[in-house]
Structures are given as C-alpha cells and as structure tokens.
Amino acid sequence: MKKFVIQVLATIIGILLITGLSVLGLLFFIVSSSSSKPTIKDNSILEITLNRSIMENPNEREMSIFSIEDKTNVYLKDILDLIKYAKTDDKIKGISLKLSDPEGGYAEISEIRQALEDFKKSKKFIYSYSNDCSQKAYYLASVADSLFLNPNAIMEVAGLSTEVLFFKNLGEKYGIDFEIIRHGQYKSAVEPYIRENLSNENRLQLTELLNSIWSKISGDIAVSRKISVENINIIADSLYGFIPELSLQHKLVDKLVNETEYDRIIKTKLGISEGDKLSKISLSKYKDVADLASYNKNKIAIIYATGEIYTGKGDNGIYSKTVINQIKEIRDDDDIKAVVLRINSPGGSANASAEILHELEELKKKKPLLVSFSDVAASGGYYIAMAADKIYAQENTITGSIGVLGMVPNVKKLANNVGITSDYVSTNTNSLYYSLTQGTSQDLRNIMTKGVEMTYKKFVGVVMKGRKMTFNQVDALGGGRVWSGKDAVDNGLVDEIGTFDDAIAFAAKKAKLTQYSIVSYPQEKSSWESLLGKMKSEEEEDEEEIEMEITDKLIRKELGKEKYRLYQKIKNPDKEQGIMYLMPFELTIR
Predict the structure, then answer these.
(1) Which option is the CATH number for 44-158+239-289: 3.30.310.50, 3.90.1200.10, 3.40.50.2300, 3.90.226.10?
(2) Separation of alpha carbons 227 and 211, rounded Å
(3) So what's the pLDDT on residue 542?
(4) What is the structure's pLDDT at 358?
(5) Are 378 and 482 in contact (CB under 8 A)?
(6) What is the value of pTM for the model shown?
(7) For 156, which DSSP code?
(8) Packing angle between helix 2-34 and helix 527-537, nearest 10 degrees?
(9) Average pLDDT of the residues in 58-67
(10) 450 contacts: CB under 8 Å, gap ≥ 6
(11) pLDDT of residue 513
C-alpha cells in the first residue's frame, strides 16, 4: 500500500512538473517571438573570442539540463561561413580577435585561419588582442594585420609536445593485467597498459608527426609575421614569448597596450570619435543576424562522424546503428544530391567501422560521397573514409593508423589480493574461454591472434580498394603508424589538402549543382525538442541509464573535450575490449 501511494504521488508530481514546464516554455516562446531580432549597426566589427569548445556537430553542444532557454550554438561550419559572409557585409568593417586558449585541434584552427586569410582579400582589417595567449591562440592570431598584447601577458610559443600516460605500474599495484594481441610494430594503443615509457617505434612516429605539424604552424606564422622559420624556432626554444617585452622585440606582436587602448586604436581605425561607443558583434549574435540559410530543393548532406566508434545507438560518439539510420535516410531522400562525410575520430570498434563502411558504399552507388578530415581521422576513422570519391585533409590532420589490436583485462590478482578466488566446471575445453578472474584460455589467445591477423588483412584490403594500392604499398604505410595530413597526401593515403568548404564545393561539382542548400546529420534540436525526446525515451530506457547520461553531460561540460576523453578512458575500459581499429595513443598536442 505504501509503495502504491508513493507511485501515485510521484505520478501527480510528474504531471505537475510537465505542466509547469510546458507553461514556462509557452511563456518563453511568446517572449522570444515578441522580442525583436538583433540588428547590426553600420561601422561595426565582428569580434571573435572562441571562448567555448569548437564544436563540429549538434551532439557536441553544451546544454544545461537546468535551462529551457535556446541559445544560439555556433559550430565550426558557422564560424567559417560567418567570416565569409562578413567579407562582403558592408556593415562589418573589420574583425577583432580576442583569443586566450581556444579549445580545438590545430586542423580546426587552421581552417579558421584560412577563412581569415580569405577575409583579408576584402581589404578590411583584422586586429588581434590578448590578455594571455596559448600557442593555438597565437597561431590563429598571427594572421592579423596587427597584433596587440597586454603589457603583463604571456605569449606561449614553445613548439609542440605530446604526453602519453602509462598505467602498467598502476595495474601491477592493484593486480590488473591486460592481455594484448596486436598487428603492426606501430600499433601502440596498448602500450600504456604494458610499458612504462614509449617504445622506439612510437617515439619515432610521434617525433615525425609533431615535426610535420610544427613545420606547417611555424611556416604559417613566419609568413604572416614576416620573420624566418629559424627565428620562430629560436623564439620557441628560448621561450621569449613568456616575457612581453621580448615578444615585442622579436616581432611576435606589434604593440604592448591595455585593452582600453586597444579599443581606442580600433575606434581611430574606424574614424569613431573618443566619446562614441564602439559597435561590436559576437559570432553567436552575428549568426542570428546573417542570412546564411538559403533554401533550395537540391541539397548536399553533411554527416558528422565525431568521437570514438561504437556499436549500437547513442549520441556521444559514432554509434553504428545511429549513423547507419542517418545514411539510409540520406540515401532514400531524392532531394539530397551529394554527401560530405566530416570525420573527426580516432577509430574504435572494428565491427562497427565495417558496418558503417558497408552502408557508405551502398550510399555511394546512388550519390557522390566526399570526405573531409578534421583534426583526427585515424584507424577506424580512416577506415570508414574508404568509400569516398575523394578525401580532403588539412596539413596538420592526424590520419592513417592502419592496424588492429585486441585487449582483454584480467583482474585475478586484484581479486586474490582482496580475498576473492574462483573455481569452475565446464562441459568443453573452452566453455570458460574468458572471465575477469581466470583470464583468457590459451586457445582464446590463439584464435584472437588469428582474428587480429585476418582483420588486419581485411583493413588492408579495404584500403587497397579505396586507394587503388597494392598490399605491399598499404602494408608499408600501415602497421598502425599515424601520419600528418601533409605526409598522407605525399604517400597516397589522402587525395588533397583542402578545407571543409573545398569538400562541399567538390561535392556540388560532382552532383552538377550550382545552387543548393546544406542539411546536417545529426540535425540540431531545440532544447524543447531534446526535453520532449528525453521524456519519450523514459518509457523505453532504464531510469538509471538516463541519470547516468545526464550526469555524463554535466561532467563533459565541466571538464571540456580533452579532459572528458581521458575521463571516458578511465570510466569505460570495457569499451576497448575485443578487436579494435583504434589510433595508437590518446594524443593531445600542445
């Protein structure tokens, strides 16, 4: 009886809560509809800060579960389009970059930088100001006509590094073993679990990768700042950017000023008097004002493949069933004439990658399929690109990693250390081929080794077909080794260095379209649509899973993209069991 009363009360409270939210939503909609659309004044500047994560698709957006307000989300494609729009907008006279530490990869930053380079053809100005400046921020800011720095700020120009965490000693301390099966001398994704430091092969590929990416970054800075690459390296080696006066002396910046003086300089540039207000507009507000959307019956679809690859359905990554449903929807939509697959993924499940590739190959039979690589398109992320008519990458994209690995955890020592033992009976030799406490049988290890070798040959076979290479050619580039986008073009793994927009333009050309509109998958939902979808899903999903998903979103928002990936590694080691197409390491370049 007590349980019945509690359930009735909970139902009543739920109804009242939903009714209350609906009323609030209606009021908010009325207020939002009645409020005037933001306008942009004459003689304005577009101010770009990149204070939030650079997002590529709606699944990455930062939503608060405590807010029903729909905020304007600005994605990478929006940033590129808005800079292009501002180029011909008579009300925008220039761009002001106020950058500190943008959270995005160097390939994404490079795309924005190229858009700014193109903007400068309009003869409008770009100025930059920093109160502290990370290396990514400086790489982007260096494109400006004039750079201004706070007299007490640090300018981080130090070259590139990456740090790999190793868990072998942690596993030994607590009694956790990792049984590893891999193909390829460079397939070092498992190294953190079996070593205390980098192998020679991994150190070699990381060194060559960083040098290739740094060559692009330092070269771009050198051209923009009109100083030699040699001097850029001297500055980086000596950390001159950490002292503002040395930043000025070595031509990293043009002037040391406070922010008020910077605004005064822009006013002078625009011919605005001292007492008048400087008109600035942010990217999110400019998106509300700019007329970017152009409807046309003929469409180009963009599929965003972001994150690790998993089987099943889900949002926070590339889930095979979810992506396959999108592909089928696109394939059956006659208004969609071409497709661009935008990949930012280190890979993941071999099975899920193969399922996605199969559906992409079916899609390609009906429509042109172009691929654009973002920061990372490695292992499974590279594998799913093999259906493409053409692959574009940035010079500092990380790609390749043609290789296979398998990993199975064993906690027998841990169990024994805390007083737990196990025993078993079985009907056949390998009925208990694996358990956490017993580990793997020898026969399982043998069959997994065979499976890894067969899966590697399948991977190579797919690349042979997609890239029109021989087995020996692919195998020489494989073994799990990663390459920069520049090197991948040189060795034939990628077709061309090009931007996201270059891929879209070529897709239009393949489809013989001069006018078209863009449709994105996954499609962005409003906060209310997400809320209603969540309410509906509660009928089908376990309540505990929903609570975990909400908690996960809050943690992701708090940690940011890079730290959240590490959190996922620690939280979900089981997702990396079995045979994987996964990049050889968790790589964060600083």
Answers:
(1) 3.90.226.10
(2) 19
(3) 53
(4) 97
(5) yes
(6) 0.83
(7) -
(8) 160
(9) 59
(10) none
(11) 96
